[in-house]
Amino acid sequence: MSNPSGQTASPGNAPAHTTTIKPTDLRGILQYVPRFQGQIFVIAIDGSIVADDNFGNLLVDIAVLRSLGIKVVLVHGIGHQLQELSALRGIPISNADGTGVTDAATLDLAIRASSRVAHLIMEGLTGSLLKAVITNAVRAVPVGIIKGVDQQLTGKVDRIDKELLNALIERQVVPLVSPVAFGPDGKSLRINSDLLAAEMAEALQATKIIYLAPNAGLEIEGDVTHEISVDALRSLVAEHPEKIADSSRSKAAHAIKAIETGTPRVHIVDGRVFDGLLNEIFSNEGVGSLVYGNDYQQIRKASRRDVRLIYNLTRNAVKREELINRTQKEIEKNIDQYFVFEVDEAVIACATLLYYADQPDVAEVGSVYVLPFYHNRGIGKKMVDYACLQAKERGVKRVLALSTQSFGFFTNVCGFQETTKETLPEARLKLYDDSGRNARVLFKILS
Ligand SMILES: CC(C)(COP(=O)(O)OP(=O)(O)OC[C@H]1O[C@@H](n2cnc3c(N)ncnc32)[C@H](O)[C@@H]1OP(=O)(O)O)[C@@H](O)C(=O)NCCC(=O)NCCS
C-alpha cells in the first residue's frame, strides 16, 4: 500500500523505504522534547485502524514517541473486528461499540475479537522493539439498567490499578489495555474504548489522549474542526448535536469527559494517514482535531463588583500613560468588555476585548495590564491569547491592538504586526485621532 509520501507500509515493521530526515526536521522536533519528556500520552486506537494498512507505520511512530521520553499507554477498540466476526460466523450482535446492551453471544465474540486485536498490536510492538504487556489493570462493574433496559454484560470502569500501570511505565514497558475488562468476580465485561481511554487518562494524569480514528478529525457542519475549546464543544453538543457528524459524536462526548476530569488536551487524528500522528504532535498546526481544556482558568469575565478593583489596579499605568485614562463610571459602563486574571481570588491583571458592530470580523484587545509583581510570568500573553481565542470563536478574523509603550510586547511576544491607522474601522479612527495619543496600530490575523 502506498501512502502520501510514496512509502510502502508494512504492518508491524518499519516502512520498506525510508525518506531522508533533514537536520532541520530534527531541530523542529527537538523543541518539543523538553515539553513532552516524562509526560503520559494515552493513545486510543480504533479497531478499524488496527486493520488498516497504515497500522505498522503508527507503531513505528509510537516507538519514536517512546524514544523521545514520552510515556505511552495504549488502549484499543474492537468494534470493526466484532462486526466482521459477527458477519463471518452469522451470529448477530446486540451492540458493536460497547455503548449499548452486550448479550452473552456478543461478549463471547468481543473476547475473541479483543484477543486477536491485542495479539496483532503485540506483534507490531515487538516488531518495533518495544516492550509491552497486556494487563488486567481495569476493574469493571456492570452498567446495570439504563432507561429501563438491562445493559447485561456492558461494563463501566470501577477501578484502575494505577500502581501496576505506573510500575510498567517506569520500567519502559508499554501497557496495552483492552476494551474487555474484568469484574470483581473475574468475569469479563465489555467497555467502550473511547470511554476507557478517558478513564485511563484521568487515573494516570495523562497530559493528552490521542484518538486514532478512521476519519480526519472532529467533523462539525461537514468540515474538520482543527481546534475547539471544550466550552465551545460542550455548548455544541448540548444545543446543536445535529451539527456534529455521527462518526464524531462518541469522540466529542469523550473528549469533553476527559477534559472535565483533568486531561488538558484531546486529539482526534486520522489513523489511516501516514505521519498523521507525528504531525499532530510535532507541528504547530496539527492535522487532526484538538479539543483543549481551559488553559485560562484563572481568567474570568469581569463583573460590576470588579469596577473599583480594575480602576485601582490600572491607576499607575494610566499615570505613566501606558494605558488610556478611564473613570470608574466609564469602566462600569463598559464592564462587559473586561476580563480579569485572578490569583488566590485577587485580581492581578485585566484586559478588554471590544467588537465593532459595523465590522464583525474585527475586534480590539486593549487595556492589558499586569501588576508589576507578576510581570514576566506569561500572564500578559495569556490575556492577549485568551482575547484572540474568544474573538476567534465569535468569527473574528483580525484582532487590533493600539499601543504607546508596549509595542515590543505585542509584536515579539504576542505575534502582532504593525499597520497604519487608516486600517482602523471608521468609528475607531475618529476616536484615535481625537485621543491625540498617537499610539502605534497593530494587528494579528486569526488563522
Ligand atoms: C505589557 C504587559 C501587559 C506584559 O505583561 P507580562 O505578564 O509581563 O507579559 P508576559 O509575561 O506574557 O511577557 C513578558 C515578555 O514581554 C516583554 N515585554 C513586556 N513589556 C514590554 C514592552 N513594553 N516592550 C517590549 N517587550 C515587553 C518582556 O520583556 C518579556 O519578554 P521575554 O518573554 O522575551 O522575556 C505588562 O508589562 C504591563 O502591564 N505593562 C503596563 C501596561 C501596558 O503597557 N499595557 C499594554 C497597553 S495595551
Summarize the structure in words:
The protein folds into two domains: 270 residues, Acetylglutamate kinase-like (Carbamate kinase); 147 residues, Gcn5-related N-acetyltransferase (GNAT) (Aminopeptidase). 38% of the residues lie in helices and 26% in strands. The chain has 447 residues and is of the alpha/beta class. The N terminus is likely disordered. The chain has an eight-stranded mixed sheet, with helices on both faces. It has a seven-stranded mixed sheet with strand order 17-18-19-20-21-23-22, with helices on both faces. Strands 4-7 form a two-stranded antiparallel sheet. 42% of the residues are buried. It is built from 16 helices and 23 strands. The chain starts with 22 loop residues before the first helix and ends with a strand. Helix 5 packs across helix 6. The chain binds coenzyme A (COA). Coenzyme A (COA) binds next to strand 20, helix 14 and helix 15. The site of coenzyme A has 21 residues, from strand 20, helix 14 and helix 15.
